Structures are given as structure tokens and as C-alpha cells.
């Protein structure tokens, strides 16, 4: 669990500023451990740069590690989290309980790979 601001948790080089629906956010994608079979657990951390500046952690996605899997890389299990995907994840968090204008409390949103792939498909982004 994170506390404070995203600046306290991650260096500026890992942060990306995005504007979603005319509102500013600071985001970061980070590894959150490994699965037993070498999968990379990912989390997307978002801080609203407006309102009460609360944090939202979106976790539950598992990507593959090209280094670990080489040469048997299963493309069906890999994905890239581009800024456009992060923008959709912010919208997803806002419609699933995160309210940076009403609460300073950090929100935690669970999203597995199937949910992520559905979001990516909806916005027309192919995996990987």
C-alpha cells in the first residue's frame, strides 16, 4: 500500500503526466512482484493533480517477462500499457469507485488481464 503522494513513492523519471477528460493526472506503471511461473505483476498508480489529489492503485494484471520466457514467448499472454491504455484505466477507476474530488483516501481497484484486454479491445488496441 502506498501513502502520501506519487512523488514520494516514485522518481520523476518513472512518472507520466496525462490529461484525461480535461483533468490532470500523474501516473506510474510499476512491477508489484512475480508469480510462481515468472509472470510480472503490474500495478498502475494514478494521482489526481486536482481536487483532493488522492491516489488510486489499479492492480491484478500479470504480464510476461521477455527475458525470462525467451525463446518461448507466448504472445497471447503479453501486452503493452501505452498512455492511451492508462487513460482508459483512469476512466475505469473513476467509474468503479475512485473519487478524487470527494475523498483523500487511497482507492484500490482490482483489474485482471481479462478486464484489461476487454478495455484494450474496446478502444481498438491490439495486445503486444
Mean pLDDT: 86
Net shape: globular
Question: What is the H/E order?
Answer: HEEEEHHEH
Question: How many strand elements?
Answer: 5
Helix content: 10-25%
User: How many helical stretches?
Assistant: 4
Structural class: alpha+beta
Summed up, the domain count is 1
Strand order of the largest sheet: 1-2-3-4-5
Portion in strands: 25-35%
- Largest sheet report: 5 strands, mixed
Rg (CA only): 15 Å
Low-confidence stretches: none
Distance between the termini: 28 Å
What's the arrangement of secondary structure elements?
Layout: H1 6-9, E1 16-20, E2 23-34, E3 40-48, E4 55-63, H2 66-69, H3 83-95, E5 107-110, H4 113-122
Parallel strand pairs: 4-5
Antiparallel strand pairs: 1-2, 2-3, 3-4
Give an account of the 3D structure.
- The structure is a single chain.
- Strands 1-2-3-4-5 form a five-stranded mixed sheet.
- It has 128 residues and is of the alpha+beta class.
- Helix content is 24%, strand content 30%.
- The radius of gyration is 15 Å and the shape is globular.
- The mean pLDDT is 86.
